[in-house]
Amino acid sequence: MMLQQIKGLHHITSMAGDAQKNSDFFTKTLGLRRVKKTVNFDAPDVYHLYYGDEVGTPGSVMTYFPFPHIARGKPGTGEVGETLFAVPKGSLPFWRERLSALNVGEISESEVFGEKRLHFVGPDHDAFALVEVDNDDRAGWLRGDVAEAEAIRGFHGASLRLRDSGATSELLGFMGYEKVDSKDDWTRYAIANGNGADVIDIETLPSANSARQGAGSVHHIAFAVEDRAAQLEVRKALMDTGYNVTPVIDRNYFWAIYFRTPGGVLFEVATNEPGFDADEDTAHLGEALKLPQQYESYRAKIEEILTPIED
């Protein structure tokens, strides 16, 4: 059996230290739009910041929990290794010059599975790569200072660092991903007819230490389904296969279910509905602090605790 409901990535959620540095990096350095400024549902004294294209299209959204005093994470197995953003063919020289001028760290180039990549790290040593992708018709956010010819289109995908890839490979196959290539320690899986954020690369590192989560670590990686009906079908199928899946959780902008993979990575399946314009106009996404209804009565206290973010 192979599921047909999953359409690629929905979002990737990581942890950060300083909220202002995080916001500046994604909006001013990478040229993405901050599409939501809200709080962590489980810790409302911590921001939850979302960045993406104009409307936060599933497959474009990078999100962060900035914990002010968090220790830096230690990379290793059992986690998302590198988040891959798609950029137009021929744009890497622009990005190399831009990132270098803005003092972004650890810039290097490589070619993986025939694709040119520019690797770099974020403010918390988060691992990213810009990947040149041909014929990606997704629209980037064009009201920053990055032009259409270079603007990030959304995710290309992500890599997983695992000690043993076998069970996770089987899971990806069950979720609708097909093995398309392999080289050395790397295996590529892709989903057909997805949303553009279609690639998962597994790096197998049998002797590496386990990761320790912290600032710069990916907390979870979310896969997109169209609606709640499709999500319930996926949930039932995963549970029938033996996975321990959470109940459906309302995250205001999507509904979410979570489960831990055999390799240790936390997977989420999120709906494309209702979207980030559910509680504010598209023209003003990400400007005001939006709170889940259960925290609205605590707004004054929450705003007192959170350090304001300057745009």
Chart the SSEs and their pairings.
Layout: E1 9-16, H1 19-29, E2 33-40, E3 43-52, E4 61-66, E5 79-88, H2 92-101, E6 105-112, E7 115-121, E8 127-133, E9 154-162, H3 166-174, E10 177-183, E11 186-191, E12 199-204, E13 218-225, H4 228-240, E14 249-250, E15 254-260, E16 266-274, H5 299-305
Parallel strand pairs: 1-4, 5-8, 9-12, 13-16
Antiparallel strand pairs: 1-13, 2-3, 3-4, 5-9, 6-7, 7-8, 10-11, 11-12, 14-15, 15-16
Number of strands: 16
Mean pLDDT: 97
The total domain count is 1
Largest sheet: 8 strands, mixed
**Any idea of the CATH class?**
Alpha Beta
Overall shape? globular
CATH T-level fold name: 2,3-Dihydroxybiphenyl 1,2-Dioxygenase, domain 1
The number of helical segments is: 5
The helix content is 10-25%
Strand content: 35-45%
CATH homologous superfamily assignment: 2,3-Dihydroxybiphenyl 1,2-Dioxygenase, domain 1
Calculate Rg over CA atoms. Answer: 18 Å
Side by side, the strands of the main sheet go 2-3-4-1-13-16-15-14
Order of helices and strands: EHEEEEHEEEEHEEEEHEEEH
Cα(first) to Cα(last) distance is: 48 Å
Low-confidence residue ranges: none
Keywords: Dioxygenase, Oxidoreductase
Organism: Martelella mediterranea DSM 17316
Pfam family, one: Glyoxalase
Domain VOC: 8-133, 154-272
